[in-house]
Amino acid sequence: MANPDINKITRENFESELIFNTSRSSGPGGQHVNKVNTKVELRFHIPNSELLSEEEKEILLQKLKNKINKDGELIIVSQEDRSQYKNKEAAIAKFLDMLMKALTPTKKRKPSRPTRASKEKRLVEKKLVSEKKIQRKKPGIE
Questions:
Q1: Which residues, in sequence order, are bridge partners of residue 42?
Q2: Residue 35 phi/psi, 5° resolution?
Q3: In Å, what is the CA distance from 107 to each residue of 3, 53, 90, 97, 112?
Q4: Which residues contact 14 (CB under 8 A, 6 or more apart)?
Q5: pTM over 0.70
Q6: What strands, in cross-sheet order, belong to the sheet with 18-23?
Q7: Which letter does DSSP use for residue 78 in this model?
Q8: What pLDDT digit, counting tens, does each position of 50-72 carry?
Q9: Model pLDDT for residues 68-114, shown as the tens digit of each residue
Q10: Architecture of the domain spanning 6-103
Q11: Residue ranges in the chain assigned as alpha helix (H)
């Protein structure tokens, strides 16, 4: 598996492929929230992307499958703020962060052995627990 090019994941590269929808946000805000579309929904169609290689598309479809609909669109919703602009910025930041995390290869775990000190510590603690349980027994029961 070749390493994906993480450096190409920038806002400028992906802005042409992002689709934004706005709607009325829920939550606090008083009368203002009832008439202004501040909730932002970001959509990114993974299979149609020209910036991603086929391998990267497969990785994204696999790792982000819970956030992708049946058409292959990654959907991110932001409605934390009362400003549409701030919600749009937050959605883009979430999107770029998700892509970076999904496309960063995971490090392979190197199996390790317990150290001599940790083995001895475990045995000492085990002995203490054993002695504690022996103390709980009624006298005469072996």
A1: 20, 76
A2: -125, 0
A3: 12, 21, 28, 18, 15
A4: 44, 51, 95, 96, 99
A5: no
A6: 18-23, 39-45, 73-78
A7: E
A8: 888 888 889 888 888 888 888 88
A9: 888 888 899 988 888 888 998 999 999 889 888 888 888 899 999 99
A10: 2-Layer Sandwich (3.30)
A11: 11-14, 54-63, 84-103, 116-136
